[in-house]
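Hi everyone,

Forwarding the result from last night's run.
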Amino acid sequence: MSDNILNLAKSFKDMTELQAYCDSQYKLIIDLSKKINKLEQEKKSLEETLLKNNLNSSPLLDLSTELSNEEVVCMVQLKLLKEISDRGSLTLEETRKFEIFTKILQIIHSNKKNNGEVLNKVKDDELLSLIEKK
């Protein structure tokens, strides 16, 4: 290895050229070390966030039950909003979405109780009226 260093040193015309080369290599090492440290910190932060949110351990919703498409959409969206609220407060738009999805589920469940049968769809007019109320 010392032979490689000697051969490298001999390939430069003078000491200033060798010094410039060494300085550039040193700067490159420093820059790469900073990038490595930054990426390691980012990786650690993302791992902590993943563990904190426990995203990989539980599905958003158990789809094995007999639910209408509307119920599934509402429940998935409510679950996502809950995860957002666990990390911080909801925005005004998110709270409106929460209210809309909750009302839709309430309508679906009350219609199921009233009719004694499973409904596959909520009337479009009811959904539109809920959205327009926001």
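The chain has two domains: 2-52, 59-133.

Cheers,
N.
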